[in-house]
Amino acid sequence: MKDANADTNVQIMLCDTIIVTMNEYWDLYDDSVPDVFKFMLHCTKSKDEQLAMEAVEFWPYYVVDPNKDKLVFQDYLSDLCPVLLQRMRYTPALLELIDWEKDDCSKAPDKEEDVMPLHYQSRTENQSRTEKSDSILEQDADDDETKWNIRKGAAGALDCITRCQELTQPLLKQIGPLIVNFLGSSDYLFVYFVRKQHTKQTSNKEAGLLAVGALCATGYELITPQLPKMVPYMLMQMKDENILVCSIACWAISRVSLWFDTED
């Protein structure tokens, strides 16, 4: 019987080999570029998260290299964009890690030290709080490094593609309609019970908002024509009862915040 795990391990090693060698020895793949792209696309779709995480790194590595042919990459955007959006959704495994009650801060009162203006604190209090904040930030950074996943990898790939000027317009043409469908979707992907008769739902909407934020990696200008309609929508999602939608909406609106200064 064929060992599926062995096949997956081989694919992981092959992805890693291509990524490691692509900067210095890409010419070796000249006759196989379409096959490389199709293979990486296939692996990015994989249900095996380790394989998908390895493969998704290929896309940003390719686009950030000024010596790579962006026209070749452009030909695969129509296939890649739906895959990246799909991979930006929360997986069941990630949702299981969420403590819905603990992570929902909407009902928790603000602490006095959190809302007190900084200049009202003594130098000792300020220094102590700064040191504590630095410690927390360092800890959070360490945690983030150990919690890298395909969702973050896909969002990072989209972020990098957006930064490539040769690809921004073709990218927007392909991914724009997909994001609109995600944002307007009422098809809930997962339902998790926190308590009896209490459900939490995550929809395409959350991934769509994440994609909007990723498109603003270098500024909001890329989606300026859509912002008059998009901003009210994002502001509305900031009130969503689902903490995942609410938090990602806050992040997305922060990425277009400078746009408000341009409006009368």
TrEMBL record:
InterPro entries referenced in this protein's UniProt entry, alphabetically: ARM-like, ARM-type_fold, Importin_beta
Basic and acidic residues biased stretches: 126-135
Region (Disordered): 116-140
Localization of this protein: Cytoplasm
Keyword Metal-binding annotated: no
Domain of life of the source: Eukaryota
Keywords of this entry: Cytoplasm, Protein transport, Repeat, Transport
Annotated Gene Ontology cellular component terms: cytoplasm
Keyword Cell membrane: no
GO BP, sorted A to Z: protein import into nucleus
Listed name of the protein: Uncharacterized protein
Naturally occurring in which organism (per UniProt): Reticulomyxa filosa
